[in-house]
Amino acid sequence: MAKILPIIKNPSPLLREKSKEIDFEKIKPNELKDLCADMIKTMKEKDGVGLAAPQVGKSIRLITINTKDGPKIMINPKITNKSWAKEWNEEGCLSVPGVYGKVRRNKKINCVYFDKNGQKIKIQAQGLLSFVIQHETDHLDGILFIDKAKEVKKIKAI
Ligand code: CO
Predict the structure, then answer these.
(1) In angstroms, rounded to a whole number, what is the distance separating the alpha carbons of residues 71 and 48?
(2) Mean pLDDT in the chain?
């Protein structure tokens, strides 16, 4: 059964590390499968649009994204191309609770990643999906949205 994992909150040095690539030859398939299931459950339970492994204390390049077509798992995601056009969009983060701010990100990106079976996938993303992939891959490099945000608002935790 998938479990809800505790979320690492800012400020924690764990959120500032550069995560390591996942080596499919070395990682235990069950370990990866369980972590993916736990991250998806945690993301849904906490109402997140995305979650990156460092947010649950794993310094590896794995992100999950909630899309309208269901949860997406992206392993070793790499943004290979970014549109010239950018857009400001309001963001928040489960690791920075109660804080929101506007971040300027590329409207369209090309992204290469591996699914949980090790299959290589190339996608073009735009709009919200593009912003979420950029936010989550930033986590893998130790970057938080508050590093880039303007008009940062703090809302009291409920
Ligand atoms: Co985040």
Answers:
(1) 11
(2) 96
Domain contains 77: yes
Domain assignment present for residue 8? The answer is no
Q: What CATH number is attached to the domain comprising 37?
A: 3.90.45.10
Q: How many A from CA of 1 to the centre of ligand 1?
A: 25
Q: Write the burial class of residue 118 (CB in 10 Å: 0-12 exposed, 13-18 middle, 19+ buried).
A: middle
Q: Is residue 4 part of a domain?
A: no
Per DSSP, what are the bridge partners of residue 145?
Answer: none
Taking the whole predicted model, whether its pTM rises above 0.70 is answered as yes
54 contact partners, CB below 8 Å, separation of at least 6: 8, 14, 15, 17, 19, 139, 140, 142
- pLDDT confidence band for 157 (50 / 70 / 90): low
Distance 47 CA to ligand 1 centre (A): 12
